[in-house]
Amino acid sequence: MANELFSVKDKVVVITGAAGILGNSMVHHFAAEGAKVVILDRNEEAGNKLAADVKAKGGEVLFLYTDVLKKEAVEKNYDDIMAKYGRIDVLINGAGGNMAGATIAPDKTIFDLDIDAVKKVVELNLFGTVIPTMVFAKAMVEQKEGSIINIASESALRPLTRVAGYGVAKAAVVNFTKYMCGELATKFGLGLRVNAIAPGFFLTEQNRTLLTNPDGSLTPRSHTILAHTPYGRFGEPEELLGTLQWLASDASKFVSGTLTVIDGGFDAFSI
User: Fold this and answer.
1) pTM of the prediction?
2) Catalytic annotation on 166?
């Protein structure tokens, strides 16, 4: 008999921001593992294409348009998911992002920071995690079980240069993760878990202009990052999947309120 400890077969896995590079990899993985995957994204073209690709491979997938900052939109998603599947087992809060005004360029200082841009980045990353959690956790409370996985960042652990607003937002996501661990377990049951992962440096559309030049070569920032990464390279999206599978499955039944760092040793390295 096969060991089912890490199985996610037939679990309903909801992923916000799923049409991005990292989310795309997650969707394909969980569908291949037999989960029923719900793609939530505001990019309808990319979301529909991803769903079609997964279905072509025999996966069970549903794409729904959403805006994670509008509770009524997420509640509509909730109703549609419950109508189709009747339960929600895993929520991966992958929606997030950064914008230029919330960063501090090498020739700028804190006094040049665009506060409105910072507010937007904090809203997207923090409240774009809080709102889906508030909505989808209701199903988990009714079921007395469920796993919520938040996507934090290396910038939540240490203040990286330039990404001032993004780092503040992701640090708040980590704090919210720990808070929700206690909130759900003590008030609603021991089958409810909330954890986070902190990806290190992965090349995505969000950071491509920071890490690569127009010709594809690495920027000075990339060289600095890799010099402080024991593995000496950027991560691949697929290298997040083992940790996500563990946190989504019964293999992590006694794990909650944790932050798992996936960064090739960046956070541990010093000279």
Assistant:
1) 0.95
2) yes
